[in-house]
């Protein structure tokens, strides 16, 4: 990176809500560099967690010599209602109202990604990073049954091939622009990957069912249909992310809100994806190898992003893995400094 002092701008990608913005910092025009694009958490509803929640991590990354980062972006998206942050129906302007329901959240993420691709022309050279429900959204963006909102109801287990499935989402509004290219890597930090399992693991705490139903309604079949760890085969990541190369699943033993079982289940769900060779352009001088790596972090659920060090460590780890795979420049090429 050549511009630690680069200006950060807030850009708008949608017109229906004030939350449809992206914090963007363009750092370098190096063709071998990557964009790091972040999706925040907050249970799809916390208005105190927006794109600026990535500021601490962004600062650490920008001051880490040797990372091949061309740009950094953090996406805000429409939120669902939060009982602790009520809004007056009569006094709140329509474009400030927080009443999003699935698939509003993922539609916004896809629209933001398409806006960034069309504006900065980085193609597939980006790493999609998500914390908590942001990790859910990151994987939904590449799931065969959810990307572009084609989620379907199904019966049977997660290996069901979906034959005869029916549409379960009829949310109005236009679909977002189609992505020109999917990410090379996804980093999921303290991620939620199975909604039903999360609710069952915390059934004694009503807030879990409350925020899941607030975002997705009470149809548990829909919960399964949009859960990255539930969907395998053509409807999951395996069917939807054909060009993907690397997944990093990071979790902290100190996480008090999302249990490690979410990460372990997602690791298992990605087994088929990892074993299939990636579809890459003929001109790309690399193997078709894929990797799924797990990384242990330290700190509470929100400390990972609020302090920034551990979230930055997960992203740096992804760059190290991409370098090992021959998909990113070695640190010495970019100034001789280690990325560790």
TrEMBL record:
<comment type="similarity">
    <text>Belongs to the kynurenine formamidase family.</text>
</comment>
<feature type="short sequence motif" description="HGGXW">
    <location>
        <begin position="40"/>
        <end position="44"/>
    </location>
</feature>
<dbReference type="GO" id="GO:0017000">
    <property type="term" value="P:antibiotic biosynthetic process"/>
</dbReference>
<dbReference type="GO" id="GO:0072330">
    <property type="term" value="P:monocarboxylic acid biosynthetic process"/>
</dbReference>
<dbReference type="InterPro" id="IPR029058">
    <property type="entry name" value="AB_hydrolase_fold"/>
</dbReference>
<dbReference type="Pfam" id="PF12697">
    <property type="entry name" value="Abhydrolase_6"/>
</dbReference>
<comment type="subunit">
    <text>Homodimer.</text>
</comment>
<feature type="compositionally biased region" description="Low complexity">
    <location>
        <begin position="155"/>
        <end position="165"/>
    </location>
</feature>
<dbReference type="GO" id="GO:0019441">
    <property type="term" value="P:L-tryptophan catabolic process to kynurenine"/>
</dbReference>
<keyword id="KW-0378">Hydrolase</keyword>
<dbReference type="GO" id="GO:0004061">
    <property type="term" value="F:arylformamidase activity"/>
</dbReference>
<dbReference type="InterPro" id="IPR050300">
    <property type="entry name" value="GDXG_lipolytic_enzyme"/>
</dbReference>
<feature type="active site">
    <location>
        <position position="255"/>
    </location>
</feature>
<feature type="active site" description="Nucleophile">
    <location>
        <position position="132"/>
    </location>
</feature>
<comment type="function">
    <text>Catalyzes the hydrolysis of N-formyl-L-kynurenine to L-kynurenine, the second step in the kynurenine pathway of tryptophan degradation. Kynurenine may be further oxidized to nicotinic acid, NAD(H) and NADP(H). Required for elimination of toxic metabolites.</text>
</comment>
<dbReference type="InterPro" id="IPR000073">
    <property type="entry name" value="AB_hydrolase_1"/>
</dbReference>
<keyword id="KW-0823">Tryptophan catabolism</keyword>
<feature type="domain" description="AB hydrolase-1">
    <location>
        <begin position="36"/>
        <end position="313"/>
    </location>
</feature>
<feature type="active site">
    <location>
        <position position="301"/>
    </location>
</feature>
<protein>
    <recommendedName>
        <fullName>Kynurenine formamidase</fullName>
        <ecNumber>3.5.1.9</ecNumber>
    </recommendedName>
</protein>
<comment type="pathway">
    <text>Amino-acid degradation; L-tryptophan degradation via kynurenine pathway; L-kynurenine from L-tryptophan: step 2/2.</text>
</comment>
<feature type="region of interest" description="Disordered">
    <location>
        <begin position="152"/>
        <end position="176"/>
    </location>
</feature>
<dbReference type="GO" id="GO:0034354">
    <property type="term" value="P:'de novo' NAD+ biosynthetic process from L-tryptophan"/>
</dbReference>
<dbReference type="InterPro" id="IPR027519">
    <property type="entry name" value="KFase_ver/fungi-typ"/>
</dbReference>
